[in-house]
């Protein structure tokens, strides 16, 4: 069981970025917690963050041949804009869960549309860092 966790733009600033919206937990904290969870369950977990659309596309394409079974992705702002990342996930034809730290449905109207949700196994929003953990637990069980 090999899980790939992808974080989109500005998520490298978690912990300091709009803490009233995104909380005080850093991305390093989240990644460490997920790695420990996977390890405790005998699974492999890799994480990757990029502020660049093409970097995320390249990493998703690489997942086709690197043994990845399941993707957990927070596309961040690209959620609302990126046909390219959507197409990459469709191309690798791998199950994925879409995660958002904040509840995108109680924010600006433009955050309500996602290019990913109709392809995702499921969507988690508004649970803070716990949302990643819920997604990884699902991936471990399936
Ligand atoms: C986000 C929500 C997006 O609308 C926003 O652009 C982000 C983070 C979240 O995790 O809540 O950067 O994906």
From TrEMBL:
Q: What keyword terms does UniProt attach to this protein?
A: Amino-acid biosynthesis, Aromatic amino acid biosynthesis, Lyase
Q: Which residues are the active-site ones?
A: 22 (proton acceptor), 100 (proton donor)
- Annotated pathway: Metabolic intermediate biosynthesis; chorismate biosynthesis; chorismate from D-erythrose 4-phosphate and phosphoenolpyruvate: step 3/7
Tell me which stretches of the chain form a coiled coil: none
Per the record's keyword annotation, is Protein transport included, yes or no?
no
Sites binding substrate sit at: 74, 80, 87, 101-102, 111
The organism's superkingdom is given as Bacteria
Annotated site, Transition state stabilizer, chain positions: 17
Q: Note the InterPro entries from the entry.
A: DHquinase_II, DHquinase_II_CS, DHquinase_II_sf
Under catalytic activity, the entry for this protein gives: 3-dehydroquinate = 3-dehydroshikimate + H2O
| PROSITE patterns with a match to the protein in the record | DEHYDROQUINASE_II (PS01029)
Q: What EC identifiers does the entry list?
A: 4.2.1.10
- Self-association state and partner proteins as the record states: Homododecamer.
Q: Which family does it belong to?
A: Belongs to the type-II 3-dehydroquinase family.
Q: What does this protein do?
A: Catalyzes a trans-dehydration via an enolate intermediate.
The record's section on HAMAP family has: AroQ (MF_00169)
Protein name stated in the entry: 3-dehydroquinate dehydratase
């Amino acid at each position: 069981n090999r899980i790939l966790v992808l974080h989109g733009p500005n998520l490298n600033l978690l912990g300091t970025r709009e803490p009233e919206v995104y909380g005080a937990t850093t991305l390093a904290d989240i990644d460490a917690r997920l790695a420990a969870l996977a390890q405790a369950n005998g699974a492999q977990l890799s994480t990757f963050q990029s502020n660049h659309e093409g970097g995320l596309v390249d990493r998703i394409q690489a997942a086709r041949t690197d043994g990845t079974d399941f993707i957990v992705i927070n596309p961040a702002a690209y959620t609302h804009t990126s046909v390219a990342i959507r197409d990459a996930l469709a191309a690798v034809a791998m199950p994925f869960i879409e995660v958002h730290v904040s509840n995108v449905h109680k924010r600006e109207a433009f955050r309500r549309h996602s290019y990913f949700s109709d392809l995702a196994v499921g969507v988690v929003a508004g649970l803070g860092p716990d949302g990643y953990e819920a997604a990884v637990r699902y991936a471990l069980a399936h």
